[in-house]
């Protein structure tokens, strides 16, 4: 999202001279996003308890998209490790690959939306559909914001070797990606994998 | 200095206001005297704090105002004083909370032998239902709601056939018997609030809420909606008549049941023989017309009835129409057929019998000095 | 820590970059403040229009029921979110955090600038709703579905959509600003400025910001879901409904879920507004009574405790909502527990006055006024938090009086006090004293006249959000006279705010020069080399902090205050004194 993006922009900016602030800022931002999704999931789980709940089918596309995001995150991790060892080429390659895979993930999500709509699971067709589009859409928006920051990071690592500034940007990118991956895995699990009865049992005992 | 005097004057004025105020709790008419007691305990404790702290500040303002050559003290921290104050506050809090929770425990636990009735809210009118001889209310669902079945009872449910329907806004209750009120809304949030009963609860579409009370005093009490429900909110009026059990039973016996397809919705308290316009006025009140249509020309949700009869209205599409009985009948039964310019198309269709319609139109006629030449009949 | 030297800060030159697209926290603070005051004036006018109808029903034909509910809604929403939240965090927070912790600016100046412009966009979208077909929403500031998105409520076509979109934009702005304030406090404090040496103003704003970051997502969630229900036909909050005789296609949603989400934001929101006010008023009282704040550590812990507890009390707004009735026990208990740290704060303010030397300057008048109004508002909260007392009072004028006293009048008095207090630092000039006193007396006494009697109308049972009360038999005719009286008082208070505006404008250009530290205060913002502070705040070198913020009237000192960056021995809080004592022996 734009917050993360400009936070990162500022963090690396020469005029601030305070690169260390980027890290805590990203942590706080991820905290805010966590609370945001926690609230959505709270609503989701409450709604799941009603009698008319019917889950969406798990299309193969979901698995494909999850794999894409996983690989995207791994590529950024690779970029980060390469950067720490001073290998600029490896860092750039990982960065490019990670971004491309993330774009592929977003395209895959849109494709998934079209597939589900074609199968009569449109957004207003039932509570599970509504929540699915809402949650996956919001997750996608956060990733799209990350891609804007990713674009700025690409620019920053473009020239002369691995700078501390460039490396920090890559590290922050990677961290945000891991966060979004973890978030997606939670959503994936709650939307498609874990049986509703199990979720409700866990939540009512807590 | 002025501020100190003003603070003391404020305290004095507040206390005076409290004891002289003509605005106070309505006389209690239910078993919830305990709620009033808890309110009084809270008032006494908080009142004491209010007076003490304001006076303390006033004293400090006088005693420690800035003077030449005087410097503020530089005391060390006083943990002991803080501890005492915290403890004292905690005691005050417990003294308020404990009785409050006891009363609440009773509030959410209706007696098993309560008389059950249902209040149904709809923008902007009240209607009611009592279980019939089988003692059970029939199933309802919003898909069954129609002009002929305004409360949405399931046509096939045997328990619903003998349910007593009160399709106007006045309900009667027996005095001295615990009453459990089931609350249902067909559109938005409402709130069933009768101030002298103290007890109340929201109506929430999609679910049935409830609360209970025992009426202890006979009389006629106003039902208010106390949860914002749109522009007609302030006029969503209803009445509870609390009477002796025998009178209540007699009243209940006169009401029609669901299986009587011919739904009678005569105006309440309309003794036979009163003139048609007076009946129409009562009908306008009981069916909630007055929530949107004033009788004095003031602007409300819909056009005022003052001077309406015989007037030429401009419609939303720019055409004009003479307000005659035929037009009025159409506007009541199918409101969205012709929309008056400047008003939203939000009026629900009303199913009135022909005599009721005639009464209502007769009432509207009295609010206008115009006449309609070709008198059509509805 | 933050800046090695001032040279890194390039002074912007053109008018455009200096005052409009500025990244200087002081300029952004002024932008936030002026925008909030402007939108607050709109809300003030709306409230007076509302009062005209209530005081003199039917006399003003243009205020019909539709308009009335639109005024009610916009008044509430603007005051709570667009005025109070924006002014405390965006205005005071922006101006004071960097100066009070000794930083040169916020850590993310660009983000800070964006935060303001996004906030302005939110305000413009909201104002645009006055001009769309159907006008702004009239659903009440709580926007409860189903009513807020159905016909029968004014503005249910476009008004509600713009309202929700505006809120979502506002939340983005608040998050941008919030990240900045939190990270600045955590990372950019100058040397020697430990957390426990920060002025309570910074503590209040800091904790309030953290709360905003945690609470606003809940509003975001409810806003997005309601917007989906309105525009895409989903049924998150919408059960099967027959609206105006027509069956709608919604089904299965829960209106109560919205209320839970809304109040999970809504209650912390009260403290997002209150905690900065608590902090500021502590500093005003300490400075203007020349005495250290009583129980500083307790005050800090009370702020933190109130902040944490405020997340577990939300459902006390829903005692009669139809939620699971057993929740009532829990939420009544937590609500009354929160009264303890709040009461401690009141005790500590008044105990600070004991044995002090009270200067009744204009900021101090407002601070004392705050104690009195907050006392009423806080105590009446105990009625409404105590579940069984709440039952007859909820949604009556008692509630209106309570929340106006506690989170309307009280924070506004602090805002005024704060503006009179810091205006000399912002402009280098003092505000006019006589006009300030006039403003205080009318506002303070006026608010008592408006809200004190209102409690009694509530006890009588007059429901709130009523356009008119004709022909209700239980309401005596005298209640109408009282309403007329309240309206007159409200109009007088409303008009008096023009005196404040005049004072603000006049003093900016013609006010008496103030010098760098007119109140002889200890905190860092008064120790800047220039007044108003220049770009980068501190000239060549950032200050180094040697003591806490409350060294007033330290025995043996020539002056009755010791600035935080003064290196002289002596003073300090109990911890410092003990440490110094150990060193000596």
UniProtKB/TrEMBL annotation, chain A:
Entry keyword annotation includes Membrane: yes
Segments crossing the lipid bilayer: 25-50, 62-81, 93-111, 131-150, 179-202
Domain Heme-copper oxidase subunit III family profile residues, every copy: 1-196
Main location class: membrane
Keyword terms of this UniProt record: Membrane, Transmembrane, Transmembrane helix
Pfam family for this entry, one: COX3
GO molecular function annotation: cytochrome-c oxidase activity
Entry's Gene Ontology cellular component terms: plasma membrane
UniProt xrefs under InterPro entries: Cyt_c/ubiquinol_Oxase_su3, Cyt_c_oxidase-like_su3, Cyt_c_oxidase_su3-like_sf, Cyt_c_oxidase_su3_a-hlx
Domain of life: Bacteria
A GO biological process held by the record: aerobic electron transport chain
Keyword Amino-acid biosynthesis: no
Membrane topology: Multi-pass membrane protein
Compartments where located: Cell membrane; Membrane
Family in the record: Belongs to the cytochrome c oxidase subunit 3 family.
Listed name of the protein: Cytochrome c oxidase subunit 3
Natural source organism: Pseudogulbenkiania subflava DSM 22618
Biological classification of the source: Bacteria, Pseudomonadati, Pseudomonadota, Betaproteobacteria, Neisseriales
From TrEMBL, chain B:
Domain Cytochrome oxidase subunit II copper A binding: 112-254
Cellular component aspect of the GO annotation: cell outer membrane
Lipid bilayer topology: Lipid-anchor; Multi-pass membrane protein
Main subcellular localisation: membrane
EC category: translocase
Chain ranges passing through the membrane: 38-62, 83-107
Keywords attached to this entry: Copper, Electron transport, Heme, Iron, Membrane, Metal-binding, Translocase, Transmembrane, Transmembrane helix, Transport
Chemical reaction(s) catalysed: 4 Fe(II)-[cytochrome c] + O2 + 8 H(+)(in) = 4 Fe(III)-[cytochrome c] + 2 H2O + 4 H(+)(out)
Domain Cytochrome c: start-end pairs: 275-368
GO molecular function ontology, one term from the record: cytochrome-c oxidase activity
Alphabetical list of PANTHER family matching this protein: CYTOCHROME C OXIDASE SUBUNIT 2, CYTOCHROME C OXIDASE, SUBUNIT II
Name under which the protein is recorded: cytochrome-c oxidase
Species of provenance: Pseudogulbenkiania subflava DSM 22618
TrEMBL record, chain C:
EC numbers: 7.1.1.9
Pfam families, sorted: COX1 (PF00115)
Family the entry assigns: Belongs to the heme-copper respiratory oxidase family.
Family matches, as Gene3D superfamilies: Cytochrome c oxidase-like, subunit I domain
Segments of this protein annotated with the region Disordered: 563-585
Organism: Pseudogulbenkiania subflava DSM 22618
Claim: Ribonucleoprotein is one of the keywords in the record: no
Lineage: Bacteria, Pseudomonadati, Pseudomonadota, Betaproteobacteria, Neisseriales
Membrane topology category: Multi-pass membrane protein
UniProt protein name: Cytochrome c oxidase subunit 1
Enzyme kind, highest EC tier: translocase
Catalytic activity: 4 Fe(II)-[cytochrome c] + O2 + 8 H(+)(in) = 4 Fe(III)-[cytochrome c] + 2 H2O + 4 H(+)(out)
Function: Cytochrome c oxidase is the component of the respiratory chain that catalyzes the reduction of oxygen to water. Subunits 1-3 form the functional core of the enzyme complex. CO I is the catalytic subunit of the enzyme. Electrons originating in cytochrome c are transferred via the copper A center of subunit 2 and heme A of subunit 1 to the bimetallic center formed by heme A3 and copper B.
Single Gene Ontology BP annotation: electron transport coupled proton transport
């Amino acid at each position: 999202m734009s917050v993360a993006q400009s936070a990162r922009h500022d963090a690396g900016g020469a005029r601030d001279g305070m690169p260390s602030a980027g890290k805590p800022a990203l942590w706080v931002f991820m905290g805010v996003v966590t609370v945001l999704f926690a609230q959505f999931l709270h609503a989701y789980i409450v709604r799941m308890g009603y009698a008319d709940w019917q889950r969406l089918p798990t299309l193969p596309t979901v698995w494909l998209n999850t794999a894409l995001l996983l690989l995207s995150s791994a590529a950024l991790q690779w970029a980060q490790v390469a950067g720490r060892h001073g290998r600029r080429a490896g860092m750039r390659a990982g960065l490019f690959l990670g971004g491309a895979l993330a774009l592929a993930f977003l395209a895959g999500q849109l494709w998934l939306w079209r597939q589900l709509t074609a199968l009569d699971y449109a957004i207003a067709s039932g509570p599970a559909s509504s929540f699915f589009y809402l949650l996956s859409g919001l997750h996608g928006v956060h990733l799209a914001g990350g891609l804007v920051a990713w674009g700025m990071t690409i620019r920053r690592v473009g020239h002369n070797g691995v700078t501390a500034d460039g490396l920090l940007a890559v590290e922050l990118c990677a961290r945000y990606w891991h966060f979004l991956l973890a978030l997606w895995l939670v959503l994936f699990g709650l939307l498609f994998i874990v049986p509703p009865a199990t979720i409700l049992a866990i939540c009512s005992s807590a | 200095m002025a501020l100190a005097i003003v603070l003391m004057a404020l305290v004095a004025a507040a206390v005076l206001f409290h004891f002289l105020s003509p605005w106070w709790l309505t006389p209690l008419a239910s078993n919830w005297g305990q709620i009033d007691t808890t309110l009084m305990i809270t008032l006494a404790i908080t009142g004491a704090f209010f007076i003490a702290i304001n006076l303390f500040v006033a004293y400090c303002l006088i005693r420690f105002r800035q003077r030449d050559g005087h410097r503020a003290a530089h005391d060390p921290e006083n943990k002991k004083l803080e501890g005492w104050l915290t403890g004292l506050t905690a005691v005050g809090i417990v003294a308020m909370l404990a009785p409050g929770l006891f009363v609440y425990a009773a509030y959410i636990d209706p007696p098993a032998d309560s008389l059950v009735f249902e209040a149904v809210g709809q923008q902007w009118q009240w209607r009611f239902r009592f279980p019939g001889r089988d003692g059970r209310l029939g199933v309802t669902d919003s898909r069954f709601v129609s002009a002929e079945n305004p409360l949405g009872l399931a046509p096939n449910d045997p328990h619903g056939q003998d349910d007593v329907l009160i399709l106007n806004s006045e309900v009667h209750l027996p005095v001295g018997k615990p009453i459990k009120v089931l609350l249902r809304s067909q559109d938005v949030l409402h709130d069933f609030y009768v101030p002298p009963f103290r007890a109340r609860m929201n109506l929430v579409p999609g679910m049935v809420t409830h609360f209970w009370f025992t009426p202890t005093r006979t009389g006629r009490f106003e039902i208010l909606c106390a949860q914002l429900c749109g522009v007609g909110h302030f006029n969503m009026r209803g009445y509870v008549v609390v009477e002796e059990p025998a009178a209540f039973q007699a009243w209940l016996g006169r009401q029609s049941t669901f299986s009587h397809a011919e739904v009678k919705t005569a105006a309440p308290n309309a003794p036979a023989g009163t003139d048609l316009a007076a009946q129409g006025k009562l009908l306008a009140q009981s069916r909630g017309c007055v929530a949107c249509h004033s009788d004095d020309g003031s602007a409300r949700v819909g056009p005022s009835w003052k001077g309406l009869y015989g007037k030429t209205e401009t419609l939303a599409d720019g055409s004009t129409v003479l307000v005659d009985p035929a037009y009025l009948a159409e506007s009541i039964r199918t409101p969205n057929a012709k929309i008056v310019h400047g008003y939203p198309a939000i009026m629900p269709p009303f199913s009135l019998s022909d005599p009721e319609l005639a009464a209502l139109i007769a009432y509207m006629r009295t609010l206008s000095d115009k006449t309609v030449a070709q008198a059509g009949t509805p | 820590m933050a800046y090695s030297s001032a040279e890194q800060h390039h002074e912007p030159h053109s008018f455009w970059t200096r005052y409009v697209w500025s990244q200087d926290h002081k300029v952004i603070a002024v932008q936030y403040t002026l925008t909030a005051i402007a939108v607050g004036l709109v809300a003030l006018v709306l409230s007076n229009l509302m009062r005209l109808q209530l005081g003199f029903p039917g006399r003003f034909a243009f205020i019909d029921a539709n308009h009335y509910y639109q005024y009610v809604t916009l008044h509430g929403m603007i005051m709570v979110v667009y005025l109070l939240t924006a002014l405390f965090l965006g205005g005071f927070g922006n101006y004071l955090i960097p100066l009070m912790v000794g930083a040169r600016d916020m850590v993310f100046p660009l983000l800070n600038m964006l935060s303001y412009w996004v906030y302005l966009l939110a305000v413009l979208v909201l104002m645009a709703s006055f001009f769309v077909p159907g006008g702004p929403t009239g659903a009440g500031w709580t926007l409860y579905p189903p009513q807020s998105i159905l016909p029968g409520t004014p503005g249910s076509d476009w008004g509600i959509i713009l309202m929700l979109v505006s809120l979502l934009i506002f939340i983005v702005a608040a998050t941008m600003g919030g990240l900045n304030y939190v990270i600045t406090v955590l990372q950019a404090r100058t040397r020697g400025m430990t957390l426990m040496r920060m002025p309570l103003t910074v503590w209040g704003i800091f904790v309030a910001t953290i709360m905003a970051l945690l609470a606003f997502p809940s509003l975001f969630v409810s806003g997005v879901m309601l917007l989906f229900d309105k525009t895409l036909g989903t049924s998150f909050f919408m059960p099967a409904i027959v609206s105006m005789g027509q069956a709608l296609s919604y089904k299965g949603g829960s209106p109560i879920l919205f209320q839970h989400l809304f109040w999970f934001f809504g209650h912390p929101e009260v403290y997002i507004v209150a905690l900065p006010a608590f902090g500021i008023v502590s500093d005003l009282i300490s400075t203007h009574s020349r005495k250290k704040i009583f129980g500083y550590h307790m005050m800090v812990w009370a702020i933190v405790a109130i902040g944490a507890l405020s997340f577990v009390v939300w459902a006390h707004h829903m005692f009669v909502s139809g939620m699971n009735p057993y929740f009532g026990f829990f939420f009544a208990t937590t609500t009354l527990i929160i009264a303890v740290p709040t009461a401690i704060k009141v005790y500590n303010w008044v105990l600070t006055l004991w044995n002090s030397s009270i200067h009744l300057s204009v900021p101090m008048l407002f601070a004392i006024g705050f104690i009195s109004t907050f006392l009423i508002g806080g105590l009446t909260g105990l009625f409404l938090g105590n579940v069984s007392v709440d039952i007859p009072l909820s949604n009556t004028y008692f509630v209106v009086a309570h929340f106006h006293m506690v989170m309307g009048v009280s924070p506004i008095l602090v805002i005024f006090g704060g503006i009179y207090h810091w205006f000399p630092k912002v402009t280098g000039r003092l505000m006019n004293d006589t006009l300030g006193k006039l403003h205080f007396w009318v506002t303070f006494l006026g608010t008592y006249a408006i809200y004190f009697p209102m409690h009694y109308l509530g006890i009588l049972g007059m429901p709130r959000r009523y356009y008119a009360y004709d022909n209700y038999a239980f309401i005596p005719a005298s209640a109408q006279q009282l309403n007329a009286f309240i309206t007159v008082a409200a109009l007088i208070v409303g008009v008096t705010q023009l005196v404040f505006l005049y004072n603000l404008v006049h003093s900016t250009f013609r006010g008496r020069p103030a010098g760098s530290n007119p109140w002889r205060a200890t905190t860092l913002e008064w120790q800047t080399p220039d007044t108003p502070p220049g770009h980068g705040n501190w000239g060549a070198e950032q200050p180094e902090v040697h003591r806490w913020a409350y060294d007033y009237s330290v025995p043996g000192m020539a002056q009755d205050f010791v600035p935080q960056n003064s290196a002289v021995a002596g003073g300090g809080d109990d911890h410092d004194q003990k440490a110094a004592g150990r060193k000596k022996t």
